[in-house]
Each structure stands twice: as structure tokens, then as C-alpha cells.
Design a protein that fits this description.
- With 464 residues, the protein is of the alpha+beta class.
- It has 13 helices and 22 strands.
- The strands form 5 sheets. Strands 3-2-1-4-6-5 form a 6-stranded mixed sheet, with helices on both faces. A 5-stranded antiparallel sheet has the order 7-8-11-10-9, covered by helices on one side. The protein has a 5-stranded antiparallel sheet with strand order 12-16-19-20-21, with no helix packed on it.
- α10 crosses α11.
Amino acid sequence: MTGLFKSSRRKLDAQALYRKLFHTLQVPRDARIYVGLSGGLDSVVLLHVLAELRRCTDISLTALHAHHGIHPNADEWQGFCGGLCAAWSVGFKTRKLDVGATRGEGLEASARKARYRWCLSMLQTTDYLLLAHHRDDQAETLLLNLLRGAGVRGLSGMSPVSEFEQRIIVRPLLDYDRRQLRAYAEAHELQWIEDASNRDIAYSRNYLRHQVVPLLQQRWPSVNDVLADTSGRMRRTQLLLEEVATADLQLTEQQVLDAVTGTGYRLNLSALYDLSDGRMANLVTAWLRQTGFSPPSQRQLQQVTGVLIRRRTPTNAIIRWPGAELRKYDDWLYALQPLPRRIEPEARIWDIEQPLTVPELNLTIAAIPARGAGLARSRIKAPLIVKWRHGGERCLVARRAHHKKLKKLLQEHRVPPWVRERIPLLYIEDEIAAVADYWYCAPFAAAPDEPGMAIEIRALQAHL
């Protein structure tokens, strides 16, 4: 061994964790702390060290145990964790979760998501959730993500401090490896649960842990230290990429879409075309995450930057992936929840006093009392008829001199092509009275200071 890799051997004890939590990670000394407790070695060690810390701090300590009901010994594990907390005078909360595999993920992944959701739901925004992930977990995470083709974000691994849904998650043991945790447990004569499924190499993480990593360690004994350090460098790189994306997004305009256009957002590209493809991809990825959409695959992202954005693409060009689609019109990039395939809703009779829902287009049409705006109340003699475009419609927009074809109006106002087929047209006695909430047509538009009903179109379902 040449000594190329140097292993980290920090001692784990209450004093070291005190410095880590309250100095390095800046957790308040009087914080209310919750600990994810499975009953395994890692979480038992973390809970014990924290219990020891209470001798010199005012922390409030509560353990959270999720009963998944998947393993035949789940009831026994719940009892073990409850007994442990009683012996150490630690608060204990547990819940049996309803877990089932969902499309695209297995039972283990579904259980993990359910566990996180429940644990985070127990916290206030000023509380802290501590998890017992350690250095070996970090190395395995990097290898797994590398083999799955992850980018910088995926190779960043787990952060010592992260935030999710305004809840703070802290992983104070990332500087320690599994052997150090076991040594601590044995020195303090701790007991823990050994889950036999953790040795099942049918699971990718277990395969790496028991087959691949030991082989690497024969050649490079400190490989886990090196991989964990690499995750740290990738995390710093990711932070830099996010800073660049934030600066680039400040160069342009972003808007929330109206309900007729679709549920989502749009980004103006006119000031961004000089960015390199890599920087454009970084910006688009950050924008999608910021607006609540998952980003596309790397191949699709290349299509977004190299084809959808750069080239003169047809106005019906779409890049889709689960839960999202990107479209471009003029110099705007649109991120939307997937729109339904072309639908021609049937005409509807609308009592303007009550909202009208159009579920196939995810729309609700309502009328709001207004003065000098909307449809004149005096001209609404009967229920309105709601129809959709078929071609050839005309409208004399209020206070304009000439009728115009609706097609021409939509083109002049740069309404995206996919929106034009979704626009509800409001008829009174076979004449167009309003084009959604875009235009009101003479002679039905309210005059200045005349009582009117303004049309309001909302999305049936809120974004994400």
C-alpha cells in the first residue's frame, strides 16, 4: 500500500458530537431534536450519544419509529425501540404506516418515502430531524448514483444539513464509518436489531456493501473515505452551479401561466441565447426544480437545449417526461403539467351566477361582479352558451372600430397555438360575447361605470 489514501479516524463520543452539532452544524443548544430510530446499529448509536449530550445541553429529545408492517418482526422492532427510549428517558413516537409499492418504484422505496413524510410531519419549522447516515452510507450512495448515470447533483450524496418542505434534516455522523459506530456500541454495551434483509444482495446497495466495496478495499483500504470526500467536492460544485443558474435567471423574466394556457410557468429566452449549451442546460434544470418540476433525462435535456431552444422548431414541438412537458413559442419556454391530448369539449349552457367546471381542460369558469368591466349585466338576457373554436369566429373588441377574425386576434396577441383550442368562447344569442377572459365583444361589453360581470378562469387543480 503506497499511502495514497489516508483514512479518517475521528473518535466518536458525546464531546465530539457536541462540537459537530452546535459548532460546525450550528444547531441551537436548546433545540427540539427528533431522531429517526429504526432500532439498527446506526440509529441506536446516534440516539445514545444524544442522550448522553443532555447532561450538558437543554435539548429536547424524541425518537421517531416508523412501523412499516413489511417485515414479520416489525411489531417486535417497535417494542424494542419503545423499550430503549423508556430506559434512556427519551420521548418516543411511533406510527404504523400504510405502505405499498407504487408504479416505477419498489416496496423499499415506497416505505422510505412514507417514513420520511411521516417523520417530517411531526416537526415544526424550528425543529431538527437527525438521521444516522454515516461515511460508508455516503460512499455507497455515490457509487449507486454513479452507476445509475447521475450528474453532479446525484454525486453530491447526502448533505450534513438539508431542508425539505421547510423542515431541517441533519446528518451528524457523516464523518464516521460503520466500524467506528460498532466500536462505540460495543464499548457502551448497547443492543440493537440485526435485520437479515440487510445482507440480501438482491438489493443493489447490499450488493455494493457486501460484494463490491470489500473487493475495492483490498486494493484501496480507504476507498470509502475517498468516495465520501468526492461527494463533498461534488456538493460544492453543485452549489456553484446553483449560484450560476441563479445569476442567469436574474437576466430574464419568469411568469406564472394563466389557467387557459396550462398549469405551470414560462421563461423568456431572449436574453439567454448567448449562453453555452452547458450553461443553458444548467439554467433550465435549476428553473424546473425551482418551479416544482422534476428535470428531464440527460438525453431529453440535450434535446431541450440543442433542438427546442436553439433551432427554429415547429410550434407543436413538445418534449415530455412523467409529470411535465416543455414547449416553446416565440422567445418563451413553457413548463407545464401535461396537457390532455386534443379534446373538443361539448358546448355547455352556463348559468353565470354559478361557476362552470370543464374537467377535461382542468378549468373553472366564473363570473365576478365588476363595474365598468366584463359583460354588461343588462345585456345578459339568458344563460350563456360556452363553446370552443371551430374556425371563422369574429369579434368586435369593445371600443375598437372593426370586427376581426378570432384567428387574427390570437395571432396578433401571440397566443400560443396549443392555447387557441382551449379558449372558451361565451355566446349570447348566437353571438360571441367574450373570448375567455381575454376580450369582451361589442355590444355585450360593459360601458365605463356600468355594472358588469368579469369572466375569471381558474385551474381546477393547483400546480404540483
